[in-house]
Amino acid sequence: MQYLAYLVTILAASALAKAQDRKPLVTPEALEDLINRESLLAHAHKLLEFSELSNNNRAFGSKGHNATIHYIKSLLDETGYYDTEFESFTYSYSEAKATFTANGQEFFTRGLGYSPSGDVTAPVVVVNELGCNPSDFPAEVKGKIALILRGTCDLGLKVAHAGAAGAVGSIIYNNVDAEPISGTLGSPSRPQGPYVPSAYISGLNGKAFIASINAGTEVVANIRVTSLVEDRVTSNVIATTKQGDKNSIIAAGAHSDSVPAGPGLNDDGSGTIGILEVALQLSKFSVDNAVRFHWWTAEEFGLIGSEYHVQHLSDEARQTIALYLNFDMIASPNGGIFVFDGDGGATGIPGPPGSDAIESVYRSYFDSHDIKTGSAVFGGSSDYQPFVDIGIPSGGLNTGASGTKTAEGAEWWGGKAGVAYDVCYHQRCDVIENLNVDLLERNSKAIGHSIAVFGRSIEGIPRTRREPVQTLRVSQLSYEERLHLTCDHDDERI
């Protein structure tokens, strides 16, 4: 009986291999035609449903995120077309929720990761300079709340100095007028001093408090923080076509996690479902070059998943990757269409040699549809960066994040000038209604187009030797610096 079962398995595998061989070779037109908004939106509804399992987010290691990655893998396994795997590891998760009032009025604040929980009320004292040295903290800060300007050193060092000076709380105010997008103290503790409950406010409000204090008006603030810090096991999802040249792998990726503040349907649910639908439809074709899809975890905590993957590639495996394509936010509600500037002509920061050929594929595609394209810079703020660091030609698309659409952008793509590309960026309102479905469908078709082009040929892509992983730039950064890399977002230009 065991032999019979073995024989059945062998015959089934042989039949599957023959069926795969009979599939037509993929063409850009054929793959693009199979991508439609109905299927994309069906995936989007599933991601929103998963977010409801963990307080309306899909932050890495949460129930919502775990459901997301199992959904992706199960759909791909059903095709029989891919070798799939979870690439798992442990990383420290931190989340802090804060409220802040001053003289009885509530102000917008961001919680700072690793800030301790607490509820403190005290007068506010302005700190000298930037709070990067113990001498910046005057004696009167003891028993008070320290008001500190962002800049130069880690936020965590500023708060540790505040704790060492005897402050009962701290307020970091932004070094620009705008509200901060996110922040962290960078590590669970520091030797310079104990952390105190902390809030993170806009530069405009911070300067207003200073003006009041300098005019002789006391500012009494209340900071309430609820904090969570824990180690979480999390996973990248990796799917590689069973056929195609494994020495010329076409790699593509999007991040599967959201920020804790919201479900992340655009950031980066849009990229996640875009490459998922392309992967599902690709299974109907054969390819000359192997294609590998990645869904990265913990991007929102500093490109953690993609860096882990690249760091753990063997020397042999690094050499097999022909190019990498990244898709992080492709459906911004007031979005544009930005192609990564492979040759550096628009931004002055080229990708590795061969990135210009990737850029050309996308420019030509949108030109053929009479759609203008802007340029995205390789600024380090998404999962392409570890691949760039080891010299792999890279490219991709995005539609903009917190940046503001220009008048020329509104003329090119519609929408509103002077308004952010995504007003719900990193917020609870990043739900299905936040998606620009036209952009989602068009960019997903463009992804399919590029996968088909490179799945057939890598002409124009040099096959130079990949650098060793110790050259990864992200691994040299502090936790806080890594967080500032996450999709906040590459500088988009038109």
UniProtKB/TrEMBL annotation:
<dbReference type="GO" id="GO:0046872">
    <property type="term" value="F:metal ion binding"/>
</dbReference>
<keyword id="KW-0479">Metal-binding</keyword>
<keyword id="KW-0645">Protease</keyword>
<protein>
    <recommendedName>
        <fullName>Peptide hydrolase</fullName>
        <ecNumber>3.4.-.-</ecNumber>
    </recommendedName>
</protein>
<feature type="domain" description="PA">
    <location>
        <begin position="120"/>
        <end position="208"/>
    </location>
</feature>
<dbReference type="GO" id="GO:0004177">
    <property type="term" value="F:aminopeptidase activity"/>
</dbReference>
<comment type="similarity">
    <text>Belongs to the peptidase M28 family. M28A subfamily.</text>
</comment>
<dbReference type="InterPro" id="IPR003137">
    <property type="entry name" value="PA_domain"/>
</dbReference>
<feature type="signal peptide">
    <location>
        <begin position="1"/>
        <end position="19"/>
    </location>
</feature>
<feature type="domain" description="Peptidase M28">
    <location>
        <begin position="236"/>
        <end position="448"/>
    </location>
</feature>
<keyword id="KW-0862">Zinc</keyword>
<comment type="similarity">
    <text>Belongs to the peptidase M28 family. M28B subfamily.</text>
</comment>
<dbReference type="InterPro" id="IPR046450">
    <property type="entry name" value="PA_dom_sf"/>
</dbReference>
<keyword id="KW-0378">Hydrolase</keyword>
<dbReference type="GO" id="GO:0006508">
    <property type="term" value="P:proteolysis"/>
</dbReference>
<keyword id="KW-0732">Signal</keyword>
<dbReference type="Pfam" id="PF02225">
    <property type="entry name" value="PA"/>
</dbReference>
<dbReference type="InterPro" id="IPR045175">
    <property type="entry name" value="M28_fam"/>
</dbReference>
<keyword id="KW-0031">Aminopeptidase</keyword>
<dbReference type="InterPro" id="IPR041756">
    <property type="entry name" value="M28_SGAP-like"/>
</dbReference>
<dbReference type="GO" id="GO:0008235">
    <property type="term" value="F:metalloexopeptidase activity"/>
</dbReference>
<dbReference type="Pfam" id="PF04389">
    <property type="entry name" value="Peptidase_M28"/>
</dbReference>
<dbReference type="InterPro" id="IPR007484">
    <property type="entry name" value="Peptidase_M28"/>
</dbReference>
